[in-house]
Amino acid sequence: MYHLYAVQRNGNILMAFNNKEASLAIPLFSPVLVPMAQSNAEMTRKQFENLSPSILKQVLPLVEHLSPLYMDLAKGRDEFSPRPEETQRLIRSYYGISRNLLIKFKDDTIDETSRLAQVLSSESAISSMLDMSIRSLPGDHGLPLQQVMPDVPPGMADAVNRGGELLATLSAGTPWESVAKEVGSTFTTDSRIFRSENTKDIDLLVDTIASWIASNASARLLRS
């Protein structure tokens, strides 16, 4: 949200905003993730990646998304940067994008979109020119990272399920255990029902974003 250099933008889309301290935003941050990262972090990460074919990386987008955070933990960093109070100060002083779409998800237990909306509308440098829309959509904090999984042939589904069983065995007793179990059930009958519902949520998110971008483009054409 804050840049050292000027960035020309027509608008920003801010999803699942959260500005909590790491220990509050991620419940297992201090007792589990930090110790795990500090002991054999690089080996653990590479071992998991080596075990994951491309199909599993599609199922587990967080593996690659969180790698930089994971390595920061290994180096002893135990808090997000900038800290929450510094983030709010930067927004108040420097945030300059007038057109904003804020998206919150109904099952997101750590969402702070309402607080962000308050800061933007009454406390930020752009408050007097603010054009802000807020949408509440089905889903949780991780929905923007999820992908629509295609139907696959039975043979491939069996291979993925067997791979999940292997990962579950290798990760037993570690924080990866529950994730590995989810991989093993990715293409079961129950998971197909879940994926069908999840696909609807992802499609709605995409449609919401596309509609907002299109309206922004139309407004620019009218002004020109």
The residue-averaged pLDDT reads 71
Overall SS class: mainly alpha
Number of strands: 3
Q: Biggest sheet: strands, sense, closure?
A: 3 strands, parallel
Helices, by number, come to: 11
Helix content: 55-70%
Question: C-alpha Rg, in Å?
Answer: 20 Å
N-C termini distance: 27 Å
What gross morphology would you assign?
A: globular
Return the string of H and E elements.
Answer: EHHHHHHHEHEHHH
Low-confidence stretches: 28-34, 54-60
Strand content: 5-15%
Strand order of the largest sheet: 1-2-3
InterPro entries: DUF1350
Give an overview in words:
- The protein has a three-stranded parallel sheet, sandwiched between helices.
- It contains eleven helices and three strands; from the N terminus they run βαααααααβαβααα.
- The two termini are 27 Å apart.
- Helix 9 runs antiparallel to helix 10.
- The chain has 224 residues and is mainly alpha-helical.
- About 6% of the residues have low confidence.
Can I get a quick summary?
With 224 residues, the protein is mainly α.
Short descriptors:
224 residues, mainly alpha, 3 strands, 55% helix
Write the layout of secondary structure elements.
Layout: E1 12-15, H1 22-25, H2 29-38, H3 41-50, H4 54-59, H5 61-65, H6 67-74, H7 84-94, E2 99-105, H8 113-122, E3 131-137, H9 154-170, H10 177-184, H11 189-223
Parallel strand pairs: 1-2, 2-3
Helix pairs in contact: 2-6, 9-10
